[in-house]
Amino acid sequence: ETVLSGDIGTPGDPGDNAYHVLYHPEELALDSSAVLDGFTITGGKADLVDYPGGVCGGGMYNDHSSPTLNNITFVDNSAENGGAVWVSAPYPEEATMALNNVSFVGNSAI
């Protein structure tokens, strides 16, 4: 199993974790052919209040992106909005995600 972790500072200290473990900016324009398969995504902490989107999607932030996720587990990610995943676009058809065998464990949003 491959783990993608936002725990980039002091091990075990969530106060210095990455804002997003995975970030897909609008410029990438990921579509469903972009497939992420077989990962655990953990430890993202989206708490950057002075940046648009900085409090959304601790595990994954998708801006106008529509990747396909297969066999993914989101564990212990946090954010103000969308603790595990955040999808951003002005119209729903501009950002959708296919989720196949995706689990969410211990994520939080306030």
What this model shows, in words?
The chain has 110 residues and is mainly beta. It has one domain. 0% of the residues lie in helices and 41% in strands. The protein is built from no helices and ten strands. The strands form three sheets. Strands 1-3-6-9 form a four-stranded parallel β-sheet, with no helix packed on it. The chain has a three-stranded parallel β-sheet with strand order 2-5-8, with no helix packed on it. A three-stranded parallel β-sheet has the order 4-7-10, with no helix packed on it. The chain is globular and about 35 Å long. The model has no long low-confidence stretch (mean pLDDT 91).
Features:
mainly beta, three-stranded parallel beta sheet, globular
The tally of strands reads: 10
Helix content class: under 10%
Any idea what the radius of gyration is?
A: 13 Å
Give the overall form. Answer: globular
Order of helices and strands: EEEEEEEEEE
Number of helices: 0
Tell me the span between the first and last alpha carbons: 29 Å
Average per-residue pLDDT, rounded, comes to 91
Biggest pleated sheet? 4 strands, parallel
Q: What structural category do the secondary elements indicate?
A: mainly beta
Q: Could you outline the blueprint of secondary structure elements for this entry?
A:
Elements: E1 2-5, E2 22-24, E3 35-42, E4 45-46, E5 60-63, E6 68-75, E7 78-79, E8 85-88, E9 98-105, E10 108-109
Parallel strand pairs: 1-3, 2-5, 3-6, 4-7, 5-8, 6-9, 7-10
In brief, what are we looking at here?
This protein has no helices and ten strands. By secondary structure, it is mainly β.
